[in-house]
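Q: I'm writing up a methods section and want to include an example of the input and output format. Could you take the sequence below and give the corresponding predicted structure tokens, formatted cleanly so I can copy it straight into the document?
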Amino acid sequence: MSDITSISRQLADLIKKYPADYIEAHLEEGQSSFISYRGKTLESIGRNVSVGGNVRALVKGGWGFASFNNLEDLEKRVEMAVRQANLAAEKESQLAPVSPVLDKILSGVPQNPVLIPLSEKKQILDEYNEILWRTPKLQTSVIGYADSRKNSIFMNSAGSFIEQEKMNVTLRISAIAADNGEVQQAGISAGSPGDFTFMRNQHAEVERIGKQAVTLLSAPQIKGGEYTVILDPILAGVFVHEAFGHLSESDFVYENDRMREIMTLGKKFGSPILNIIDGAAVPGLRGSYKYDDEGTPATRTHLIKEGVLVGRLHSRETAAKMGEKPTGNARAITYRYPPIVRMTNTYIEPGKTTFDEMISGIEEGVYAKNWYGGTTSMEMFTFSSGEAYMIRHGKVAEALRPVVLSGNVFTTLHNIDAIGNDLDMNQGGGCGKGGQSPLPVSNGSPHIRISKCLVGGR
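A: Here is the clean output for your methods example:
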């Protein structure tokens, strides 16, 4: 691949010469590899390299954007972005101030996962697939592995020049069992910010999900109704990301009159035990970084503090429009897209309650774990758990078919009456928004107890 560092120095000088309120540019070189199976069949395997960049210009409130995968004639790319911005210009430009930065950040990962031989990765996945197919009544399975290493250089007309190296590894496995017209599934989703180590020791977990899919075929279905529900860290993390986190992305709030009214800072959204955080400044997670794709330093942002809405996620533009501070949440999945407001690592902070204390007072309830699907519409949500168990007389009892949980996110937040002391972060997630997916994120939570939650069933 080409040396983008020397080319980026030329581009940094170039963008300072053009008449615009603001110009920024990215150059990026990347490597990636992938392996996928459907059933016993190896479906795809390969390795990619890429190089490209973009220029984004702001003129009187109008944005122009040009992306490219040829690093020649960069002056023409800058001219195109500025010309587009002039066509869209109509009002005074607004960007929250951010001091120029000169920095270089390495990933800190000792080995680039992309450079581990494909044959070695395939051997591990072959072992996992063999374990799955020892399972009786297995109908099919899906395995997807991916890794990447990306070196990205950001520069702007204010003088920033930031080079960041990022790595990523993900593994997703689903086992689907069938018998007498019944079909059930179980799965795992795991990942890391570049460390391949976890990939080598998933054998027991793979065996577990195969057996779990078969067990669910004969599990009873719950009677639908309102129950006290305990969510495990994975499902609670998905809930806080999907049902609440997206509502905290300020471009969505700014553009929606109803959400601006609902998401008013200072409004009470839960009891004093509830604290929700988003932050790329939380180290060691897939959503972590030092600077976002606008060169804004990463933060750790309280969204809800002691039950009260106190913050939201911003780009420089949304922060200026709403009179708030940028939070370092402007992200783009690759150089082909402009940055938009996105989550990073979103989680509920741990409380002081043990799991045994949380479950002890429940006469009849539901323990919901993991997940394999869901939808949100404004403040309404529906999520399917990956596993479920009845709670009877303060103890986890019989296994159930996976349950569907639904409700209003704000009502549900108010109904959280216990938060565990066992925070766990799920590193396997990928977030989609604005055609950009899957963006590396992490989400998590301790176990949480919801005093009233609607559970779908027979």
